[in-house]
Amino acid sequence: MFGRKKKALGQIDTLVGANTVITGDIQFSGGLRVDGRVCGNILATGDEPHAMLVLSEQGVIEGKIKVPHLIINGMVKGPVHADQDIELQPNARIIGDIHYKTVKIHEGAAVEGKMIRQESLQTEKLITLMAPPAVEQNKSTENPE
Questions:
Q1: Which residues, 6+ apart, have CB-to-CB distance to 21 below 8 Å?
Q2: Is there a domain that residue 99 lies in?
Q3: Using CB atoms within 10 A as the burial measure, which of 23, 72, 97, 118 is most buried?
Q4: Residue 48: per-residue pLDDT
Q5: What is the mean pLDDT of residues 17-34?
């Protein structure tokens, strides 16, 4: 009842309109939709696992993108890092490498660059089995004779 409510994945808090041009970096949390043009890097701030960027069909981003969740249907010129998932819709055009955990690519999307899958960071457990210490038995050999 009291306290902050968690934001649902897919909720858009901020909109960069179709006739808007932003020159400079953008840091955001929550949801960001870009219908205009951004000449700069776009980064999700902090440990916001639900942060999502949506780039619409008319949107253009020239710079690095680093977010957990990403949907692209416009043009990106620069490297893309999606810590969780990325969806490339039919009009997506990316010039740059894509780093992703999971990806969904629709027919018609185009990528000029490498697609690099990021393995989930799992802590490997190293177990070393050691033999129990040898127990010396003091056997007395008695000769019953």
A1: 36, 37, 38, 39
A2: yes
A3: 72
A4: 74
A5: 96
How far is 26 from 23, CA to CA, in rounded Å?
Answer: 9
For position 139, what pLDDT does the model report? 52
> What are the Cα distances from residue 100, in Å, to 48, 96, 105, 134?
17, 13, 12, 51
Q: Token pair for residue 18?
A: 């179709």
Q: Which residues contact 46 (CB under 8 A, 6 or more apart)?
A: 29
Residue 85 lies in a domain: yes
Sheet containing 75-77, strands listed edge to edge, beginning at the edge strand earlier in sequence: 21-23, 37-39, 60-62, 75-77, 93-95, 110-112
Q: Classify residue 129: in a domain, yes or no.
A: no
Q: How far is 104 from 85, CA to CA, in rounded Å?
A: 8
Q: Which residue has the higher pLDDT, 83 or 2?
A: 83
Domain that holds residue 58: 14-116
Residue 63 lies in a domain: yes
**pLDDT tens-digit map of 98-116:** 999 999 999 999 999 999 9
| 132 — pLDDT class (breaks 50, 70, 90) | low
Q: By C-alpha distance, which of 55, 79, 65, 76 is closest to 26?
A: 65
Q: Distance between CA atoms of 139 and 145, rounded to whole angstroms?
A: 18
